[in-house]
Structure formats: structure tokens, C-alpha cells
Amino acid sequence: MRRGRVTEDAVERPGRQLGVAGVLAVGGVLLALTALTYLLHRLPHGAWSLPVALLIAGAKGLLIALFYMHLREQRASNGLVLLTSVVFVAVLLTVCVLETRTRFRPTIPPGPFPVEPLPGRLEDPGGAHPSGPAGPREP
């Protein structure tokens, strides 16, 4: 009975396998990045919050893909598939961020009734409503 050929994709390279100490080290780095994510979400960094969060998430995803999914031990074609998917995700995220950055602020259409603020809102920066309580008016 003839056996099929084993392709290079299925063969792991013995010199690139990760030992127990390596697995624990990668796990420690992943825990440190998770703690960094938690600590940084409490700091006000404005426009940098999304890029920093995506950078940390990307680093954690890369570590998981390389070491726990064994892409580091496989042939380069698997890495090309990973790189292509990362590029597509980056393009989609860029399109989403640019689309939300270019939205215009909706205007309040004119009407016969005075505009009152939404419940729970303290002030209206546009000054489109009369100053006073938002409840029913007494005659």
C-alpha cells in the first residue's frame, strides 16, 4: 500500500518548536499586555485611545498566531495568508474610521415649536433651546 507524500506545510521544523519556558514567557507577555490595556483605558488620551488599543490588540493577536497557533513553525505560505488577512482588516478599519471622522453634525430643522434639550443633557452648545426647565410650562 503506497502512502501519499507529506507536504512541507504539514511538517514542523524541530528547531523552531517552543518549549515549556517559551510558552510560559509568551503567556506572561500576553498577561502583561492585557494588564496594560486595562490600565490604559482609565487614562484620558483622547484621539490616541483607538490607535493604542489597536496596537496592543494587534501585538496580542500576533503573539497568539505565531506561538499558540504554531505559524512560526510552518512554511512561509501560511504567513502570507496571515499577512494578507491583517492587511484587509487594516483597510476595513481605516475605511470605518475615516467614514466616522467625515460625518457632519446634524442640524435641528426649523419648526413651530421651541426645541427642548434631551432628558439628561445638561447644556446645549448651540443654544437652540430656551433657557429654563424642560418640563411643562405653567400659565
TrEMBL record:
<protein>
    <submittedName>
        <fullName>Cytochrome-c oxidase</fullName>
    </submittedName>
</protein>
<feature type="transmembrane region" description="Helical">
    <location>
        <begin position="47"/>
        <end position="68"/>
    </location>
</feature>
<dbReference type="Pfam" id="PF03626">
    <property type="entry name" value="COX4_pro"/>
</dbReference>
<keyword id="KW-0812">Transmembrane</keyword>
<feature type="transmembrane region" description="Helical">
    <location>
        <begin position="80"/>
        <end position="98"/>
    </location>
</feature>
<keyword id="KW-1133">Transmembrane helix</keyword>
<dbReference type="InterPro" id="IPR011743">
    <property type="entry name" value="Caa3_sub_IV"/>
</dbReference>
<dbReference type="InterPro" id="IPR005171">
    <property type="entry name" value="Cyt_c_oxidase_su4_prok"/>
</dbReference>
<feature type="transmembrane region" description="Helical">
    <location>
        <begin position="20"/>
        <end position="40"/>
    </location>
</feature>
<feature type="compositionally biased region" description="Low complexity">
    <location>
        <begin position="127"/>
        <end position="139"/>
    </location>
</feature>
<keyword id="KW-1003">Cell membrane</keyword>
<dbReference type="GO" id="GO:0005886">
    <property type="term" value="C:plasma membrane"/>
</dbReference>
<keyword id="KW-0472">Membrane</keyword>
<feature type="compositionally biased region" description="Pro residues">
    <location>
        <begin position="107"/>
        <end position="117"/>
    </location>
</feature>
<feature type="region of interest" description="Disordered">
    <location>
        <begin position="105"/>
        <end position="139"/>
    </location>
</feature>
